[in-house]
């Protein structure tokens, strides 16, 4: 008679044998491993060095730097097209025109990067013209909007499941920039020096990717095709607006915190955000790595594609729950240990803000379905709804309950954009999300 233990052993063995015999799964696992290694290493180094920078600058100066970074981030979705998944999908499927797609994406991102840099500096000059220091910091940090164009090389590597090449290139740039930050801390440098390192990291990353590409090129030189540019821009336009809305509700809280509560409170808030968002790299990395596989599976096996989407969303959702509980368990010790006693008042804000990860993780899984079903326009509407919720709640709550209000607004924004809005926009997706959460299939 077969015992439960033997039966379980047989199922596990069967899964292992299936994995070992499926080359595509092995490639995805290896690619994901490289990406996780990169993201985890970068996140750990960034968290530790960032905490040291926060200690060195103090909440007020750190809040000023955080404001500039948040402001520049608002332009990033426009500068980088917000079309990574679309470019990877097109390059994976259209083998004959890979070079035109990549070349066109590079030209678009470079042009938009320069335009966004000029617009960002002009915006500060208009609204804060008497603050020359803030204009200077914006001009320095804004250089990252131009250097991000080189990330098109990373999209080529992603489409070929060669992300380890990006890992090596960007890790060198990242470690170098953080080593410079440590040197600046030891030399008691000003906030402008740390802004310059942010731009330097973007430049070093671009140079490292160019060197990596020389070792793994496309079969032909990249080309520029106006029709391809127009097609990429057309497909990306909803995603750019969506990305802008995402950045609005992810970063506008920092801008509003500074305007309503001041730079000191923003310094406290900005310090806990990396702790809250630390584990978001896991679903983001997995989604990036499996995107080509999911795109191909939709064409070959629709039912298998559906099961894959549900499995990924289930994995992401419960990972969000687990990381939220883990963060809550250590927050009271972690914040003062990393940042110092001056940042201890931010512990409660971290405990509340980390809950937003549950909905953020679920939304990252849903984005794979939206891209492959060509429903990216609905992402825009859902994100706008989340952005409206974020702005409205921040304006109402910040004056009354301070930083906790910003954290509650972040939870609401993620819940609306990643889940609630799909009840109206994409009922089929919401059924898949409910199936992922409840382990029960919901039919229309």
Overview of this protein structure:
The protein is an all-alpha fold and 444 residues long. The protein has one domain. 84% of the residues lie in helices and 0% in strands. The chain contains 20 helices and no strands. The chain has helices at residues 4-21, 23-73, 76-79, 84-93, 98-127, 132-141, 144-147, 152-159, 163-186, 191-213, 226-261, 263-277, 281-300, 302-339, 347-353, 356-372, 376-401, 403-420, 422-425, 427-438. Residues 4-9 have low confidence and may be disordered.
Form type: globular
Beta strands, count: 0
Oligomer: single chain
Distance between the termini: 41 Å
Helical amount: over 70%
Number of domains: 1
**Low-pLDDT residue intervals, each spanning 5 or more residues:** 4-9
Layout: helices, strands, pairs:
Elements: H1 4-21, H2 23-73, H3 76-79, H4 84-93, H5 98-127, H6 132-141, H7 144-147, H8 152-159, H9 163-186, H10 191-213, H11 226-261, H12 263-277, H13 281-300, H14 302-339, H15 347-353, H16 356-372, H17 376-401, H18 403-420, H19 422-425, H20 427-438
Helix pairs in contact: 2-6, 2-9, 2-10, 2-11, 2-12, 2-13, 4-5, 4-8, 4-13, 5-6, 5-8, 5-11, 6-10, 8-9, 9-10, 11-12, 11-17, 11-18, 12-14, 12-15, 13-14, 13-16, 14-15, 14-16, 14-20, 15-18, 16-18, 17-18
């Amino acid at each position: 008679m077969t015992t439960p233990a033997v039966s379980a052993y047989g199922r596990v063995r069967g899964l292992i044998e299936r994995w070992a015999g499926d080359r595509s799964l092995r490639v995805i696992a290896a690619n994901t491993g490289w990406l996780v290694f990169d993201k985890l290493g970068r996140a750990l180094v960034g968290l530790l060095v960032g905490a040291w920078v926060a200690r060195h600058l103090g909440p007020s100066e750190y809040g000023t730097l955080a404001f500039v970074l948040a402001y520049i981030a608002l332009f990033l979705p426009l500068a980088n097209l917000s079309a990574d998944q679309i470019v990877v999908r097109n390059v994976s499927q259209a083998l004959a025109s890979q070079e035109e797609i990549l070349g066109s994406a590079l030209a678009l991102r470079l042009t938009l990067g320069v335009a966004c840099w000029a617009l960002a500096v002009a915006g500060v000059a208009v609204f804060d013209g008497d603050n020359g220091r803030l204009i200077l910091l914006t001009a320095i940090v804004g250089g990252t909007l131009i250097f991000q164009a080189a990330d098109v090389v990373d999209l080529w590597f992603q489409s070929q499941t060669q992300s380890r090449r990006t890992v090596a290139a960007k890790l060198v740039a990242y470690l170098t920039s953080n080593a410079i930050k440590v040197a600046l801390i030891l030399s008691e440098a000003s906030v402008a020096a740390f802004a310059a390192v942010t731009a330097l990291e973007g430049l070093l990353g671009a140079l490292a990717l160019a060197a990596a590409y020389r070792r793994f090129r496309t079969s032909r030189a990249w080309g520029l095709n106006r029709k391809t540019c127009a097609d990429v821009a057309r497909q990306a336009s909803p995603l750019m607006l969506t990305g802008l809305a995402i950045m609005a509700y992810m970063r506008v809280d920092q801008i509003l915190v500074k305007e309503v509560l001041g730079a000191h409170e923003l310094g406290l808030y900005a310090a806990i955000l990396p702790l809250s968002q630390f584990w978001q790299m896991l679903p983001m990395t997995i989604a990036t790595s499996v995107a080509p596989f999911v795109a191909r599976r939709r064409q070959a096996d629709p039912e298998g594609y559906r099961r894959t989407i549900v499995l990924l969303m289930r994995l992401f959702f419960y990972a969000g729950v687990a990381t939220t509980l883990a963060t809550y368990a250590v927050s009271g010790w972690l914040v003062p240990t990393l940042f110092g006693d001056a940042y201890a008042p931010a512990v409660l804000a971290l405990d509340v803000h980390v809950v937003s990860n549950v909905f953020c993780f679920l939304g990252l899984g849903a984005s794979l379905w939206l891209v492959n079903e060509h429903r990216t326009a609905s992402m825009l509407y859902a994100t706008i709804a989340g952005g409206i919720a974020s702005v409205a709640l921040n304006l109402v709550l910040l004056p009354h309950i301070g930083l906790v209000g910003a954290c509650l607004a972040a939870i609401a924004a993620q819940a609306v954009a990643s889940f609630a809005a799909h009840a109206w926009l994409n009922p089929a997706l919401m059924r898949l999300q409910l199936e992922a959460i409840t382990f029960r299939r919901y039919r229309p």
